[in-house]
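Lecture notes, unit on protein representations.

Consider one protein chain, 121 amino acids long.
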Amino acid sequence: QVQLVESGGGLVQSGGSLRLSCAASGRIFSFNTVGWYRQAPGKERELVAQIFSLGPTNVADSVKGRFTISRDNAKNTVYLDMNSLKPDDTAVYYCNLLTRLNLLSTSYEYWGQGIQVTVSS
């Protein structure tokens, strides 16, 4: 089993910054993608950003220019640096891991429990 533990959430004023961390443990294969998702009350869960094994990233248009995703393989940790936060960014943020042994093998998906981010006006 793989476990994902998120940390770094909390309450911040509009325009402020937060860093979210996702620490992974267990059997993680070489081919993997880590994504940050978020879900606000009454809304669907949406992809915020993702990072691939060798470093390329994808960031949603709604947060482009404000959020940055990165990883530290030595620590098995992925970060989401959030700047210029807005009240609309308020949501529960989830870490997601998709991993496989090779490109033709079965993929395995894991989710963190979620962490609250609240941005006040």
